[in-house]
Amino acid sequence: MKRMLYPIIITILLVLVTIILYHNGNTADTVFLSSDSSYPIYGESAYSSSVGDIKISVEKIVQERYFIVYSWSTGDESYFGITLLVENIKKERLSKDDFKTIWLVDNKGKTHQPIPYFEILDFPEDQPLGWKQVINCKFWPLAPEIQYVDLYLKYGETLFVIKKVPIK
Fold first, then answer.
1. pLDDT in tens, the chain (168 residues)
2. What dotted CATH number matches 48-166?
3. Could you list the residue ranges that cross the membrane (predicted)?
4. CA 41 to CA 128: how far, in whole Å?
């Protein structure tokens, strides 16, 4: 009986130690775009701007840092990306031609113009609603000391401003 009990106790202890170590070591950096970051708010961004029937919200912020080295080419492919959700509150059709320009002003006062890469997608892609769009924009990487950015977007004839969007 004792011979059978020892392996069972050791197995249980190993499982408990593994669970405790995994739980304590699982500290991934997560940015919730919410004024109360104790829990995520799904479906509504805390960083948005509405003018008239158009609402623009920050959906996602990405900071990619990587460097490519090949035998014949090298290059820094790092970027700061931002994904915006454009909605017509009255659910009327949006035009992709209404997007004009975007720029950022960081907390140090420096203005950042985008890399010439824009992707304007209907939402959802498989069966577009017509009144929702996703805009993906890329910028050169921001300095490590930058805490937040103010986002300026010209859509149609309207300037949308979203203040103090955290990037860390």
1. 667 787 888 888 777 777 776 665 544 444 444 444 454 555 677 888 888 889 988 888 888 776 666 666 666 678 888 999 999 989 889 888 888 999 999 999 999 999 887 788 888 777 778 889 999 999 988 888 999 999 999 988 899 999 999 987
2. 2.60.40
3. 5-23
4. 24
Distance CA 149, CA 105 (A): 6
CA 39 to chain CA centroid, Å, is 16
pTM of the full predicted structure? Answer: 0.66
Count of all residues that appear for the chain in the document: 168
Closest listed residue to residue 132, CA positions, set 122, 142, 140, 141? 122
Q: What are phi and psi of 100, to 5 degrees?
A: -105, -60
Instruction: Kindly report each contact of residues 65-72 with a partner whose C-beta sits within 8 Å and lies 24 or more positions away, as own/partner.
Output: 65/141
User: What CA–CA distance (Å, rounded) separates 136 from 116?
Assistant: 11
